[in-house]
């Protein structure tokens, strides 16, 4: 269900506004109503957001250093200093990398020519001789260059010849090949420079790794302070200024159950306030307030989108279906038992768990329990069939709850039909709540048509197909669906819209129900793949008293680990698809609500 919200309006004198906002933040209950003003143009806010991004990058860098970080209470001031030092080290590494790239490029250019002192080239030039460096393909080299320019081969790499010409300073050397301009340092000097830069980079990297042992909590504390500053700035931007900027007007939302607490707080503040109920035009933030079992499924609802304030929260209504569908998709009692035991052991071993993590683990345990129960319908346990074991307990269960493939196929379709009809009932309830009962009449008519037809098909003894009772219900349902699907419009428009709804119902409903066949198909495929791994484990193990059992266990464990991973993923995704597409569509779910996020530290 959706928690009831109250609209709050505050009017505060401008000199007391900052202190008032800090008090509101300490209270941590009020969700500030957002306005589309000033956020993108506010320089201070954008600077804070960029600074937060710098902290995020620094924290991520420190976490990837591969060292165990010390745990201590973070200090924001130390975090600021650490950020500056980290960015300085990164800038230094970037400069080293640039110099290293240049040096390595020069080394590569000199390697083909060997080591020599560039000063010798200058001394020869002063003595009246010039040396030019060239490279060409072997077939391009002209032997006449040896006589004309004293061409001398220095190196030959592949099909390329590296050569120099030695001529007098006043002689012009023009060859139709690539001329090379070499660095002004010798090869040995450059190689030593490259080695020194590598060492400098390693020292900088070592310094960063050393910092990673201590600074992460400080960086996180500094980032939290920036986030708090960002939220404060956003609230200021969502404030209206009145009376020549003397009065500040702020709107917000709070759960109705916290209003008394807010009133007590406001009685200590010098601020005028009003508390009112939301109007249909208000964009009310959504706080889901389900209890117990249903609360565990709220994260799944949030993966799609939150409902609007005046909509039904469908979390309690899809939760039992989702749990059942997961069990049918995974469909192996052994896998379900493994999930329950693994999570239980983890909860015992883990020292500290957040409340959200505890809820997720409890959900996994429930889904594992559902899988154990649904697996008994086919008797599958780690790919083996329990009902092949000649034990009275298993044989009695086989006679009581065992279903063959055809029955599992039928069960999937029946569950699909039940959930879709249930969704249509919720749609009628939602329409009644939002707009009034007359807007739900057409939906109720379609429910009468579908339910009566299903009963007549499944239990003709109770209601014969096409009999008097069935025909009366069909006529009443058709009149409701065709004449009242759009209240306020003339009868011909209603009839036309009713015919269009009939086409959509005939085509869409069949496709929606057939989508539920995946419940049977996924469970069957997972069981077949599990039995294949069992056969591989037995068939591929060598006939050796020591190696045979080891290899068999390895194949069994690895194969079932892969199968569990793939099938658990499918058992999460496909029930979500059935919930978010088939069920939500037939329930008339719109969604689009914004989550309740109170302004707090």
Task: Give a written overview of the molecule.
It is found in: Membrane. It is a single chain. This protein has helices at 17-27, 43-63, 76-111, 118-126, 144-149, 187-212, 216-237, 259-266, 292-295, 298-304, 315-330, 333-349, 355-378, 392-401, 405-434, 441-458, 468-483, 491-514, 517-539, 547-586; strands at 5-13, 31-32, 129-137, 152-157, 160-168, 178-180, 240-242, 247-255, 271-276, 380-381, 384-385. With 601 residues, the chain is of the alpha+beta class. The chain folds into four domains: 1-34 and 250-287, Alpha-Beta Plaits; 114-181, no CATH class; 293-402 and 517-589, no CATH class; 404-514, no CATH class. Strands 1, 2, 7, 8 and 9 form a five-stranded antiparallel beta sheet that branches. Strands 4-5-3-6 form a four-stranded antiparallel beta sheet. Strands 10-11 form a two-stranded antiparallel ribbon. A hairpin with a 4-residue loop joins strand 7 and strand 8. Helix 3 packs across helix 7. The longest helix has 40 residues, at 547-586.
């Amino acid at each position: 269900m959706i928690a009831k919200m109250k609209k709050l309006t505050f009017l505060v004198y401008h000199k007391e506004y900052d202190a008032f906002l800090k008090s509101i933040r300490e209270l941590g209950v009020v969700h500030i109503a957002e306005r589309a003003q000033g956020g993108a143009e506010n320089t201070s806010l954008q600077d804070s957001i960029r600074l937060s991004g710098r902290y995020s990058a620094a924290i991520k860098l420190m976490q990837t250093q591969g060292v165990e970080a010390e745990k201590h209470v973070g200090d924001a001031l130390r975090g600021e200093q650490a950020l500056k030092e980290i960015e300085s080290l990164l800038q230094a590494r970037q400069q080293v990398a640039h110099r290293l790239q240049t040096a390595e490029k020069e080394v590569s250019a000199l390697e083909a020519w060997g080591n020599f002192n560039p000063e010798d080239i200058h001394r020869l030039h002063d003595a009246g001789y010039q040396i030019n460096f060239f490279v060409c393909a072997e077939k391009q080299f002209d032997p006449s260059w040896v006589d004309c320019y004293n061409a001398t081969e220095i190196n030959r790499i592949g099909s390329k010849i590296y050569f120099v010409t030695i001529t007098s300073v006043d002689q012009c050397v023009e060859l139709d090949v690539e001329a090379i301009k070499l660095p002004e340092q010798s090869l040995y000097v450059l190689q030593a420079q490259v080695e020194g830069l590598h060492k400098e980079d390693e020292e900088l990297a070592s310094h960063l790794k050393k910092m990673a042992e201590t600074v992460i909590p400080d960086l996180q504390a500094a980032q939290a302070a920036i986030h708090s500053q960002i939220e404060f700035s956003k609230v200021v931007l969502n404030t209206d200024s009145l009376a020549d900027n003397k009065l500040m007007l702020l709107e917000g939302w709070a759960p109705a159950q916290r209003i008394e607490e807010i009133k007590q707080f406001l009685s200590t503040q010098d601020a005028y306030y009003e508390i009112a109920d939301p109007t249909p035009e208000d964009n009310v933030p959504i706080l889901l307030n389900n209890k117990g079992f249903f609360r565990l499924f709220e994260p799944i609802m949030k993966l799609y989108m939150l409902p609007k304030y005046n909509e039904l929260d469908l979390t309690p209504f899809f939760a039992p279906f989702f749990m059942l569908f997961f069990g049918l998709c995974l469909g192996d009692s052994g896998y379900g038992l493994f999930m329950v035991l693994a999570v239980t052991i983890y909860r015992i071993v883990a020292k500290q768990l957040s409340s959200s993590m505890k809820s997720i683990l409890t959900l996994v345990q429930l889904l594992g329990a559902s899988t154990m129960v649904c697996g008994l319908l086919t008797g599958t346990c780690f790919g083996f069939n329990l009902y092949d074991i000649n034990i009275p307990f298993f044989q009695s269960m086989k006679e009581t709850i065992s279903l063959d493939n055809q029955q599992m196929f039928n069960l999937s379709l029946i569950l699909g039909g039940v959930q879709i009809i249930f969704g249509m009932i919720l749609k009628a309830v939602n329409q009644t709540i939002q707009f009034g009962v007359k807007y739900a009449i057409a939906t109720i008519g379609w429910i009468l048509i579908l339910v009566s037809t299903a009963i007549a098909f499944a239990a003709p003894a109770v209601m014969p197909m096409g009999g008097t009772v069935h025909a009366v219900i069909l006529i009443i349902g058709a009149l409701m669906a065709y004449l009242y699907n759009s209240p306020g419009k003339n009868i011909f428009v209603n009839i036309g819209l009713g015919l269009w709804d009939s086409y959509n119902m005939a085509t869409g409903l069949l496709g929606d129900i057939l989508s539920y066949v995946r419940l049977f198909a996924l469970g069957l495929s997972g069981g077949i793949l599990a039995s294949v791994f069992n056969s591989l484990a037995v068939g591929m193990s060598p006939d050796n008293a020591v190696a045979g059992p080891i290899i068999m266990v390895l194949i069994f464990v690895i194969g079932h680990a892969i199968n569990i991973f793939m099938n658990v993923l499918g058992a999460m995704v496909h029930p979500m698809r059935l919930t978010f597409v088939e069920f939500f569509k037939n329930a008339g779910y719109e969604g689009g609500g914004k989550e309740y996020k109170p302004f707090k530290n």
